[in-house]
Amino acid sequence: MVLEKTCLEGYKKLGKRVVVLEAIRKQLRYFTGRQLGLMRWWIRNTTTPAGNIVTASPISDLNSVLIASGTVLTAQSKTCGEFLFPMKEFFVAYPMTPLPADSITTKSTIPLRAEGTRNVIKSYKQAKRKANDITIVRAGFRVVLNDNSVMDISLAYGGVVHSPSQLVFTNESRMAPKTVEAKNTMEAFLGKKWFDKTVLEGAMAVLSCLKEWC
Q1: What is the per-residue pLDDT across 74-112, written as a single tens digit (0 to 9) for each?
Q2: For tag attachment on the chain, is the N or C end more exposed, with fewer CB atoms within 10 Å?
Q3: Can you give the pTM of this predicted structure?
Q4: How would CATH label the architecture of 118-213?
């Protein structure tokens, strides 16, 4: 896959400053059954990262980790010219975005990690099968640590729902309407020690609260 190769080359060149590329690449291994040794050579159609993003699917394999990494989209239209959208503000509801009707996305910019900081980014997918299955819940996490204290954090989830009325029904699945950050949980971590058990338990209590997703 072109995207997988690009992520690998970028990570080899820039290392831990672009750990988001390695997080994306590891998730791509589950596409087309390769993780299970079932390479599907007969799948000929491919999609682009931009197409994956602008569909605004809450169970996209890219959107949650791109939100967590602080990615900014560049778009262009005849009426508005060139303009920017932070990914965390891009998903209004499935399948809606703030893009004008005559616009296209032209670039995705992922910030480089600042020198001397520890930046951890992970991407997770929960599904009924390990590979070749539609996502139930998607998650992208980023934490910036200094002396084990949380200096910055983003916890982005796709597919979460706190009431049946929010579910969007499709031919294949039920899904929550958009990808969101768990802002109250993020606040519970800021300035705290990352490996403190009490801090983790408190943050998990906030995460499981219905108000976090309202």
Answers
A1: 999 988 899 999 999 998 877 888 898 899 999 999 988
A2: C
A3: 0.81
A4: 2-Layer Sandwich (3.30)
